[in-house]
Amino acid sequence: MNPKRRKFEVWSAISIALLLAFLLFFLYPLCTLLKQAFTTEESGFTLDNFVKFFSKPYYYNTILNSFKVSVAVTLVSLFIGIVFSYFYSFYRLKGEKFLLIASILCCMSAPFIGAYSWILLMGRSGDLTRLLKALGLPAGSIYGFGGILLVQATKLYPLVLIYMNGMFSNLDNSLMEASANLGCSGLKRFWKVILRLSMPTVLAAALLVFMRAFADFGTPLLIGEGYRTFTVEIYKQFLSETGSDYSFASAISVIAIVLTAAIFLLQKYATKKFSFTMNALHPVEKKAPKGLGGVLMHVFCYGVVAVSLLPQIYIIYVSFRNSKMGVFQKGYSLANYRAALDKLLLRATGNTVLVGVIALAAIVLLAIMISYLVVRRPNFINHSIDTISMMPYIMPGSVIAIALVIGFGKKPLVLTGTLAIMIIAVIIRRLPYTTRSATATLIQIPLSVEEASISLGASKMKTFFKVTVPMMSSGIISGAILSWVSIVTEVSSAAILYNNRSITLTVGTYAAVSRGNFGEAAAFAAVTTVLTALSLFLYMRLNRGKEIQL
Question: What is residue 395's DSSP assignment?
């Protein structure tokens, strides 16, 4: 047998195996979801579920609500992130490293934990609410549209910050000097030159923020009250206390997929309109902020970080306060942690780490193979694998979870209620991010490096593992650590898939909040917050002081 043919067949076998895995664990559940949405046991094929949704304002208004809050979150996040990044990238701010780390830490926390913390701070009996009332100041309400906007924007603006930092680092200083020579400087230069050059990055960041805000169900579920959103309605229809309606929940999920796909395609079209490449031969040099402008820059950046970081600090603080019947009392102790231990805190922590480690190992391996197949061995099958693997990027986690429950809730393959199905859900949801990171890194590696290794007698597989993979390590580590944090803070799919045996930290927090055990919930949330902080520090250690990237 020809040895070249044998080596080729190894990658062919990998391609086929990956395609079959996606067909079984993603496309098959998705097809069962579609079938459930369009059929009933009584009448077979039907559009009744869709007619029901679009004929009643009670249901279709949830689409409008989700779009309103997601667009608002996107706009506010873009404003904060772009302005923050501009100050960070063009000026030498005091404590700039702290500002960046603190911002990223806010991004890495589960959004509903922030919502829960803000309820404890500014709910009807929150500490900050009582303080404001004692001072005779209006406390306002943290519930509804405004509360969702506050929680999501303070969590998601760091995504814009990271994207824009990368963009601004690629700006050539000669462009800035040329615009200044033509009389375009200050705010006018920002609008006319910098922002226009940044438009592809702005659109990419906007899509990511919009998708995450649209897919989040934990925040509106806890803090939305009467403001009903799309994802919450899917969750309630699927896990209703008065009787689940799988067919109706599936129909709403199909509508969610169509809407998010449309937004994704619109963003891709807009990005092509601004498509160009840029390389900074002379990077922009940071200037020292001076006068009132410098003071306002620091006030803005530190003010944003303070508001964003407050819920993370406060949740750790209240986890040590005494509580009785779900109400916080005077004094401090470890009672909340003891109560959490009785409610499976150790099991939740163990499951979180176990799911995270297994899922992350699978994500890294799959991302490496998919990126290599797409970049080095492009063909129809490999491009199909890449396209299928990217589809979950535009799908809410609750939709993927419902598809998995319907697809694997009965024979021949029953996975519902196991850790396996939670691991599968996490892999499906988080694989696109690491794959994009690995692919972007591999594209920058010259093919001649691999050819040199092969010419020296190394096999293609040995070259792949000994040469190519180590050179991809920076992109892999970057994507892997950030995927790990997303796994640790995952709640939208976990809340549907878990049971007592497969409980995780975020689900434990959510379950405790649902029962009204706020002290116990604070203990679960505090452990989650510490775990995400440790993950960030590990990322920075492995990244060796380089700028944080997505």
Answer: S
Cβ neighbourhood burial of 1 (10 Å; 0-12, 13-18, 19+): exposed
pLDDT tens digits for 131-176?
888 888 777 788 889 899 999 999 999 888 888 887 777 776 666 6
pTM of the model: 0.83
Whole-Å CA distances, 408 to 20, 80, 388, 436:
16, 42, 19, 28
Q: How many CA atoms lie within 13 A of 155 on its CB side?
A: 29
Name the phi and psi angles at 361, rounded to 5: -60, -45
DSSP 501: G
Q: Which tokens hold the place of 139?
A: 């406390």
Number of other CB atoms surrounding residue 275 within 10 Å: 8
- Rounded distance, CA 149 to CA 140, Å? 14
pLDDT tens digits, 94-132: 988 888 888 888 877 777 788 888 888 888 878 888 888
To 10 degrees, what angle do helices 291-318 and 145-169 make? 130
CA atoms within 13 A on the CB side of 247: 16
Q: What token pair was written down for 320?
A: 């040590």
Tracing tokens 């994802």 back to the chain, one arrives at: 231
